[in-house]
Amino acid sequence: MKNNTQTQLRLLDLVEFIYEVCANWGKSRKSQDAIASTDLVPKTAPSFAWYANVSALMLGIFACLAAPERVRSLLALDPGVNPLPIDLPAPFPTPSPPPPLVAKKTGELFQSPQSLGARAIGHAEGNLTVSGKPTSLYYGHDDPGNFKRNQGWCSDQGRGGGDVVVADRKCLERMQQRLPLLAYDLRAASIDPEGETEVFLNAADLYNQASPWVSRQFPQKYAAARQQGKQGEDALVWARVEAFRRNGRIDASGLIGICRREKRGVSDWDCVAGDQRRRVKAIARVLSARGNTNRDRLRTPVQGTITQGYSTVHPAIDFAGTLGSPVVAAQAGEVVFAGWNEFGLGNTIKIKHPDGKTTVYGHNQGLLVKVGQQVKQGDAIAKLGNSGNSTGPHLHFEVRDRNGDFVDPLPFLSSE
Question: In this structure, are residues 241 and 279 in contact, taking their beta carbons and an 8 Å threshold?
Fold first, then answer.
């Protein structure tokens, strides 16, 4: 199983490589001159690595011609074959227990060009508006990085053959085939693709934008960003840029070539970061419009009735409920306080979330978590109580933004 899995991964990357090389053969002389002007293309004799890549290309073409059915089987292209590797080599260890293929919520992101994931990536590409309407770029434009002709929501790199309907379909098929591996790599980095839709879509967007190895590096880079204390947009941008790092440098010739031609005078890292931040913001806008971004969306922390709303004198929401009923985390994060609050909230929990905001849960009967504990959205953290300055069993729930300012929780609450 292990050897077969490794062969699948190598052939998947080889097929991507073959496609890119074959597509590049059709570039115009003008495009070649433009690329050469960036000084990114070596003017010396081909290296050993160049000959090795060409040899791999020819070997791949020969394999496809000589044994197409075997290749299809190894690539898991047959309808009944599971495309998800179960035992990946390091640095992508097998999670325990093995994850499902693609959960329903994740799979629904790319069911059609109007699905949430397609709209987010389409907006990041500039081909769709936030609401999913096509822009002029959707119908055709030249890629400023590699000069290929693009159409469709994903900028199809010519895969649709000039037909925008075919381009949309090809975009969906390509993304759907990759979803299991994207989800797998995120789980291997202890990131839940179901609970962190924004992170998942940034990984998918990198796969759509760059070479496959970039999106494979992103989960580990994002985990490292969090460990370094980076949060929200900054963590996503840093991880996306560092995912382009190979052999000690940022390997993004298309983006860097644009910066050099336009004489922006920035480092390679900052050049790539500018584009990645633009894409992160675009994805967040689409998710915000649908109320699905982890920066905005909060789960209602307890079953009950709102008895007091948010105001300047009461910067929180009060939920009246049954004594002892479970209080759950409104969003995934780290418990930074769990104990007695001296200012009237009694048994209180405070959670810091990856996007920088904090949520506070007061008047609890009992606490179920400790400081430093990581919780997922929906995890039970306390029992509803009547501690502190309270006139009856209820939960005091407040939200503060990354600057520590109070915000009204109500617009961000969902019923999930």
Answer: no
